[in-house]
Amino acid sequence: MTLLIQPSGVTGLYTDTKVSNTITTSTAEIGIQVCVMVDGSAKYVEGGDANGCAIYDERLQQVSQNFLAGVAQVATCSTTAGSTNTCFLDFLQATLSAHSYNFIAQVPNGYHDVRATWSIVNASTSNGGTVGACLGPGNVLVTQTKVFNNSGAILSF
């Protein structure tokens, strides 16, 4: 018996990177991975990696600058109560996408427990960056199919 397993969902990624006159480069990376298991194992699952997992969304963001230190030395960009040299460049990016993958499981006849889980992967930041991710709403569609070989010609009437 063959199961066609289609997890789908709306994904959201949030990445924030900041630079200032003392921080010249900032990075943020994050991703969402969905894994499928049948009867508690990925041994039947084809599609994705060897663990039955696929990356649904991932982002690497980096911002770099080399001018803010020079700007701060020449003049103050703005002055607020008790602070000076507030020059900065802040690049913010956020994405929301819908994704679906097809996984196939060749399983013996009978009842099977099909599960799809998601997790955050590759979350990292440098120099004050922040990241976040979400998945939902989502669903999992499982369709039982039969694979067969044609044993003869198609008859016409």
Describe the structure.
The strands form two sheets. Strands 1, 3, 5, 6 and 8 form a five-stranded antiparallel β-sheet that branches. A three-stranded antiparallel β-sheet has the order 4-2-7, with no helix packed on it. By secondary structure, the protein is mainly β. Helix content is 4%, strand content 59%. It has one helix and eight strands, in the order E-E-E-E-H-E-E-E-E.
Which terms would index this structure?
157 residues, mainly beta, 5-stranded antiparallel β-sheet, 8 strands, 59% strand
The average pLDDT score comes to 85
Uncertain stretches of 5 or more adjacent residues: none
Helix content: under 10%
| Quaternary organization | single chain
| Estimated radius of gyration | 25 Å
Task: Tell the overall outline.
Answer: elongated
